[in-house]
Amino acid sequence: MYKAPRGMSDILPSEQPLWRYIEEKAASICHLYGYHLLSTPVVEDAGLFTHAVADGTDIVDKEMYTFRDRGGQELALRPEGTAPVCRAYLEHGLFNLPQPVKLYYIGASFRYERPQAGRYRQHHQFGFEAIGDADPLLDAETIEMAQRFLFSLGLRGFTIHLNSIGCKTCRPRYIAALKQYYSRFERHLCQDCRNRLQRNPLRLLDCKKSHCQEIAESAPKITAFLCDDCRTHFEQLQEYLNALNTPFSLNYRLVRGLDYYTRTVFEIQPQEETSQGALGGGGRYDNLIETLGGKSIPAVGFAAGIERLIANLHEQRVNISPPPHTFVFIAYLGAEAKGEALKLSSLLREQGIATTASTGDKSLKSQLKQANAHGSNYTIILGQEEMKTHTAQLRNMKSGEQSVIPLMQAAAILREIQGSQSN
Ligand code: HAM
Q: Which end of the chain has fewer CB atoms at under 10 Å, N or C?
């Protein structure tokens, strides 16, 4: 028996309402803030990510699904959504539009991680990116929008962690200081951190091993190294967030797992910091468009993990209204009635009434059981007697009341009932 690949899941019909709910809230928050939907391929040139997310990050070095297609091109399943959006922005000349250009996306991302609660090899992200403006006002708006999105879902109690990781000018000085500090502890670091010390020293700060965390406690803080422009940007961002009444918690050890960030980085942690990890994260990436071959164009964005949102909605017992059921179930007895059932179901659907018709030759009892399982409001019963008199039995599944109606008028009667119930 085949199974879904490890770390990848089916989304069953019973779970779909929650996914639709999140997608609808995502679309409506994007409408409120002026973002437009952009869909990009699930597969991209692998170089896009090695360039954008950068070698030396786990996402590129250890987690990317890469393969050669039959033409020999090296492709990758997208591990995240920001680089593809920037690629599309450049490819379609969106820099010619009034800036910033605001784009959002919802879709699957792939990372070859060790599957565990909240960490999958296929996960889904809702993300949004504002490209073309360096104003910290846009960072504040992005963070407020992320917060408002989570509120609109019904989630509460989360914390927004905020930091600035500087720019090309000031970060090298910080990294040098960090390296100097950590080299004293090299023998005590975990193997991953020893590699990080060589390849990606910033990531030393967010190692989850308790021993490395103790060392990180006393590490130099980036805020002391920010250049004047980055410091002013960070201060203004905090002022704007205060003006928006968007609470945040400064976290000098927040560095994020992708290399394209400059200045602002932020992450939203759930109510209780479970092993599931962040609900979402984002930040500013002022060099990415240039790295990908464009001009120097600043940008800022955020992405949330939909599976983690769902886990938290369950934990916080947020109620989602169930999906609409089939309105009518049509049961029949005998070949002639079966033909009538087929025609009637087609007519009802044509009139916008959700209908399920029975199949096969089941007993009336088992057909009514099936109607109940479908959650149908009404069942139409067509038997041999009804065929003779051109009538149908109309059964209210909730009250059990049953009446005889002319078959010709069945559609009109059901339309009227449906209309009166939706008012
Ligand atoms: P990220 O933090 O790598 O950022 O991913 C965003 C969110 O996706 C995470 O906070 C988490 O909720 C979810 N996520 C990531 N990996 C997994 C996984 N293996 N299983 C389940 N959920 C996961 C980015 O990808 C950036 N592109 C965000 C961004 C947008 N930055 C600027 N604009």
A: N
